Every structure is written in structure tokens, then in C-alpha cells.
Amino acid sequence: MILSRKNKSIRKIRDKWFLILFLIIALSGCKKWVEVPPPVTSLTGESVFKVDATAAAVLTNLYARMGSYSSIGSYKSSVSYLLGLSADEFVLTSFGSELENDYYKNRLRANIVGGEFWGEFYNYIFICNSAIEGIEKSNDLSKGVKEQLLGEAKFLRAFCYFYLVNIYDDVPKILTTDYKENSVLARSPVPEVYKQIISDLMKAREGLTDGYVKSDAETKYTIGSEERIRPNKWAAIALLARVCLYTKDYINAEILSTQIINQTALYNVKDVPLVNVFLKNSKESIWQVQPIQKSPGNTGDAFLFVIPGSGFSENNPVYLSEDLLNKFEVLDERKFAWVNIFSTGNGNNCYYACKYKIADITSNTKEYVTVLRLAEQYLIRAEARAYQDDLEGAREDLNVVRNRAGLENTLANDRKSILKAIINERQLELFTEWGHRWLDIKRTAGFENSSVSLADEIMPAICTSKGGLWTPNAKLFPIVLGDIQNNPNLIQNTGY
């Protein structure tokens, strides 16, 4: 089940420390992550967790991997891009590859494409499990560092399982580095995986600091000077609030999102201009990933989505769909702050996402990839309140997001219309961010036919317009064929 991105079998990974050491050494050659300590080149598995600095480096380099190009957090391999292609966010031009077209037309094939996230997320989980085992066994780490790093590892493991369970449904719940045990695990039911996610996040919440710490996992930044690139207590709570929303635990979703919204010394939406939302260390950001490549640069999102003067290419094959653009109200300032226009030269205009604006990878880094931000928490609380019939409270939260975008208060005034307005607002606020749209239409009941998902309601027409043919099975991605063949207990998703 644990694969490289090229879909190699778990049998290729036998030494649980090799991968950790490889990351520490290999990523040290990339652009310097904020205050990354010097590379460690000679460690045994046990010695990694004898010293605070090397233990912290394990997690630091995992964040660096997330920020590198061709990862789950950046450029063409990112969750944002591939799930956005699967949904209704983009138009893919003729420069799209076969892989991109397969995602775009919802025609994934287990023997060719569809398992990109499977291998990558399980590799992250493997590293987290290794870190958890090493940190828990260590008697040499300082108490504060040990608690922080355990919290980070459990947060990251929960983050990975959240995406796995929402992309593939039932998934193997791997919690150890035992190769023999992991190689024959069956898929665990979704509720069981969510139970583990919640457990990890609750433990992470207890161990992580309130503020942000530096690369030593101990020294705190002063408020106003922080780098928001190591998860803190509020990042764990933010993800836990999302999990509670997805699992229909609306009472706790509201409680948790309120806890973050109340942290006004750290987080703010109303005073953060739209053009500043995605700057590094924006006050709206709860957790960001710093872009990493061999030269100073900015995000893979900007490099991919911002259309240069030379036009579309293999590096820039998409623009925003009319379905998304038509949802913006006339005075919606997000359309001006986060969307830009490209003229094709033949009288046609295309619009592209520019939440991240600096596409020049040689420029000084001014933008970080934002993973969790406060606007989502307002929308989580709005939805949770609506499902509890606190319609006025839901409207108030929805209006915070709308008002920041220069819009008047919502006219929605009953439960159904408010819920529809919230999903619409999530589409406009969170487009091209971490697959929110794809996950939202899968988890939400149809507004015209509540017996099916919103995806099954809208995607037949969308998929046809993209040149594909929608089937309900397309809501789940296929598991890598090699893992199905190597593990007799692993069952493929229906339709693949």
C-alpha cells in the first residue's frame, strides 16, 4: 500500500529509516526552508530521535517535501489541480497531457492513472508513523519538543487520511511501520478511519503550541513576526472542525470553528484585503506551506495557473470554467482580486486564477501555499449552524465572507436556500484550493434531487461539456493496480 509516486510496491520500502534519512539529505539541497538546520548526513534510526534538532528535521523536511514541485501541495501533482480538473473549475486546453485529460474527463483507469494521491499520501503516513514511533520511544528529547513533534506528526497523519478517505472511500488504516502487517491490510470502513483521524487531531491539539514555533520546534515567534508553516494547536482544531462538518457532527463543528474565530490576536478575515489573503504569513492563514525548489521562488499554483504573455502551454494548460465565472455576482470583488484576464488575440478572452500572483519562480518568495485559512472556518460554522436550524447565525457567518468580498448580505432566509447559498459561497471563496469543490459536491446532497449527491446531479452535464461521460463510480478514484495485485486483501473500487 505504501508506494512511491511512480506506483512502486510497498515491497520496495523495507528500511523504515531510509526514507527519513533520504528526505533529510535530499531536501537539504533545495531552497532553504525557513531556518532549516544544516543537513544531517550520518544517522542511525535510533539516533535521529536522540537530539531535538534532528528529530525536528524529520518533520521540517516533510513540510519541505509538501512545498516542492511535483508534490501533493504544488503544481501539476497537487490536490488543488487534479481535483479541480475532476470537478467544474477548469477548462483544459489542447496542451493538457493524457493524465490531465483523464482527470478532466472523469475517466480514470487503475492500470494507468488515478492512484497518484494513494502512493504520495501513504508515503507521508509512513514517515509520520516512523516519527511517532521514534519520538514516543525516545527518552532524550526535551519535553516541549517531544510534545510538539508528536502533535505535528499526528496532525499530518490525520491530514493525509482525511484526503485518502475522501478520495478513495474505505482505505487501509496503517498506524505502524511493520512491513509484514501493512502489506496485507484490508481497507478499513470510512467511519473507522474518521475515528482515527479524530483521535489523532485531538491528541495533536493537546501537544501543539498555541502560537507558532521556529524550526527547532520549541522557540516561539512573537505575534506579528511568525512564520505560519509549522502546524499549531489551531491548525489541528481547524482540520477537526472540517472533519466534524464532513461527519455531520454539527454541534462540535460549530464549537471548534468558534474557538478559532475567537482567536482575534492571531487570525482575522475582516481586516485582510482580498489581494493579501495568500501572501506569506497572512493574518487569515492558519497553516501554510513554504514553496521549495532549487532557486528562490514562489508557488507552483501561480506558475501553473497564471497565463503568461506567450499564452497556453504544457506548463499553463488551463483556465477557469464559465460555470465558475457565471456564479460571481457583478460586484463581487473576488473576481477582480483572484481572477485575471488573458486575451487569446482572436477576440476571445479567457479568465485564469490568480490567487497566487507571482509566477516567476526566480523572484523572492512573497507567497506561501495556504492550506488552512479562517474564511473556511466561517463557512464551516455557517453550515453547521444551518443544519442545527440556527438560520440567523448561519446568515451572519455567511455574510462575513460576502461582505469581505464587497457584497451585500445574503437574501437566503430558509434552511434550504441558506445551505445552497453556503455551497455557492464555498465555490466562490475556495476555488482552486485543495480540492474543496470536488469534495463539496461529493458530500452534499443534490438540491433538486436530495436522494443523490450534488456531484451526481450536476456532473453529467459538466462531464459531457468536457468531452467525457459521467458515471456515479467516478466520485471515487481507483486504487493503484499494483497494490491490488500484491495484496490479496485489498479490494478495488467499483467500476475499475
TrEMBL record:
Record's SUPFAM superfamilies?
TPR-like
Q: Write the record's keywords in alphabetical order, separated by commas.
A: Cell outer membrane, Membrane, Signal
Against PROSITE patterns, the record matches this protein to: PROKAR_LIPOPROTEIN
Transmembrane segments annotated in the record for this chain: none
Task: Please give the GO cellular component terms listed in this UniProt entry.
Answer: cell outer membrane
> What's one Pfam family the UniProt record gives for this protein?
SusD-like_3
Q: Where in the cell is it found?
A: Cell outer membrane
Q: Which residues form the SusD-like N-terminal domain?
A: 111-245
Q: What is its main location?
A: membrane
Query: Which family is it part of?
Result: Belongs to the SusD family.
Q: Identify this protein by name.
A: RagB/SusD family nutrient uptake outer membrane protein
This chain's source organism reads: Pedobacter ginsengisoli
